[in-house]
Amino acid sequence: MHISTVKPINKIESQLKGRDLLTLLDYTSEEIDYLLQKALQLKVDTKAGKLPPILQGKTLGMIFEKHSTRTRISFEVGMIQLGGHAMFMNAKDLQIGRGESVYDTGNVLSGYLDAVMIRANSHEMVKELAKHSSIPVINGLTDMFHPCQALADLLTIIEVKGELVGKKLAYVGDGNNVAHSLVIGAAHMGMHVAVATPVGFEFDPILFEKAQKIAAANGGSVMQTNDPVEAVKDSDVVYTDVWTSMGQEEEAAVRLEAFKGFQINDELVSNAKNDYMFLHCLPAHREEEVATSVIDGPNSYVFQQAENRLHAQKAVLATLL
Ligand code: CP
Ligand code: NVA
User: Which of 16, 40, 174, 212 gives 20 to 30 Å between its CA and that of 114?
Assistant: First the structure.
């Protein structure tokens, strides 16, 4: 008798109900795959006008310490499409902005809301909020991670390439929050990942080691280099993000100098496969980290990727809430 090692869907669903989403390190490969499959289905249902109002009567609180276009709007629209409601809160207008403790805030919000999505400066603060909240806390970007972005990125690669396992992903640029989540997510899905950063802007070493172990367990691999050509060589996906993230504005001039040679341009992508796809989490700085000819060219899927934030997050909301 064949005994399947894959857990039934309802088992995965029940183990995800009520969980936080702080980083993809806290999720199994199976759970991430489940969320991606669910996102694909919800996208089909949305386009067909057949989305069930499964979050009717539920409210998502959205706290922002930093700017946002995609995260804010896609979460709000996602809740509306699922029959629920979302509430935008600028952190500086809340009492937390003038010193109320994370402990009190988490406990109080848990009495009003069904989940909180937070974009914060410090990942540690978000962990603290989750610890003191009885409702799911969803990370909408911290200094260390951007897991909802990574889910949308993987979803877009599945749509374009058909599958993730065995595909080569090159991330070129800053070893930042977006890179951390993308590489961890890709490792879970058995991709071959090459990260190219300038010296001094590498991927977090502890996270790099964890990503390597996750990739190995799934038949994939993760390598790091300071040579963008080496990373991009024969890749299916070429990904970059801004060189200066929110909160690092004072370092902009130094970074501009350090990242010279890491721009994704026609010469660099000539090393990728002919049918490579270009991705960027956006917002982008054209002619800085990416040439206009690439981001606006035929291999770019950045707007499909941005739309997929909506569908990937609906999968997260429908599952966790
Ligand atoms: N990619 C992303 O998170 O975009 P926003 O900063 O606009 O939310
Ligand atoms: N790394 C960027 C991503 C923005 C979505 C930042 O943190 O500003």
Answer: 40
Return the residue matching tokens 């489940």. Answer: 34
| Pocket lining: 289 vs ligand 2, CB cutoff 6 Å | no
Spatial distance between the Cα atoms of 271 and 295, rounded to a whole number of angstroms: 16
Task: Name the residue with the closest Cα to ligand 2, atom 7.
Answer: 245
The neighbouring-strand residues paired with 60 are 86, 115
Asked if residue 74 and residue 135 are part of one domain, the reply reads yes
For ligand 1, the distance from its centroid to the CA atom of residue 42, given in whole angstroms, is: 21
Nearest one of 38, 10, 36, 6 to 24, comparing CA atoms? 36
Q: For residues 20 and 36, state if they share a domain.
A: yes
Q: Whose CA is nearest to atom 6 of ligand 2?
A: 245
The CATH number of whichever domain residue 175 belongs to comes to 3.40.50.1370
**Tens digit of each residue's pLDDT (9 = 90 or more) over 244-260:** 999 999 999 999 999 99
8 A C-beta contact, residue 289 and residue 262: yes
Chain segment 72-130, per-residue pLDDT in tens: 999 999 999 999 999 999 999 999 999 999 999 999 999 999 999 999 999 999 999 99
Torsion angles phi and psi, residue 7, rounded to 5: -70, 145
Strand partners, 245: none
Angle at 153 between CA 54 and CA 46, to 5 degrees: 30
Are 140 and 16 found together in one domain? yes
The boundaries of the domain holding residue 141 are 10-146+308-320
Is 33 annotated in the active site? no
Q: Report the predicted TM-score, pTM, of the whole model to 2 decimal places.
A: 0.97
- Tokens found for residue 299: 């291999």
What's the chain's Rg over C-alpha atoms?
A: 19
Number of domains in the chain: 2
